[in-house]
Automatic annotation (TrEMBL):
Name listed for the protein in its UniProt record: Phosphoglycerate mutase
Gene3D superfamilies per UniProt: Phosphoglycerate mutase-like
């Protein structure tokens, strides 16, 4: 049996939810992408990393999460595992930061462009990663990846299309999603 385990990063220190306008929301996104982990953010449970091929997103919060989790050796930094961009548009609103994320992602899903990766390109990137991981699992039967919520969501969907079966699913900060394939 082969196994892929997706571990979402811990809560970033900058993941506050204050009201911001469009300019401040763009700053919020930049700070979120550079943020250290919130010192109070701890894994609710830990997956054993022994005998695992460990991959990590190139984004800081994923690398910090892997280190905090106890990953002493990273086998591969996977560029395609980076988070799907958090888009930002200059709209005339003041909203809570996470409401901006929801509205901006909805516009992004609908094809609205900006100075960030297009949604269709992000999905193709994650689908490419799923194919790579399926192939890698032939040599490395247990893969643990430290990454991001939206990227994990679409990666999970792509792996299921390749006959992987979800046995555990948690998309929260530090959440673990486990997939298996015979």
């Amino acid at each position: 049996m082969k196994e892929i385990i997706l571990v979402r990063h811990g809560k970033p220190a900058s993941a506050h939810n204050q009201k911001v306008n469009a300019v401040d929301y763009a700053k919020w996104v930049r700070n979120y992408n550079k943020s250290e982990l919130d010192p109070n953010s701890q894994p609710r449970k830990k997956v054993c990393l022994e005998n695992s091929y460990i991959g990590v997103s190139p984004l800081h919060r994923a690398k910090c999460s892997a280190a905090h989790y106890g990953a002493s050796h990273i086998h591969e930094e996977l560029a395609d595992l980076r988070e799907m961009d958090i888009p930002y548009y200059h709209l005339p609103f003041t909203l809570k930061a996470w409401h901006w994320v929801v509205i901006s992602r909805a516009l992004w899903f609908l094809g609205r462009k900006g100075r960030f990766e297009r949604f269709t390109d992000a999905k193709q990137r994650v689908e490419r990663l799923a194919v790579y991981l399926d192939t890698l699992s032939k040599q490395e039967p247990r893969i643990v990846l430290f990454g991001h919520g939206m990227a994990h969501y679409f990666l999970r969907k792509s792996l299921v299309k390749q006959k992987w079966r979800i046995t555990e699913k948690d998309g929260e900060f530090w959440g673990v999603t486990r997939l298996e394939k015979m």
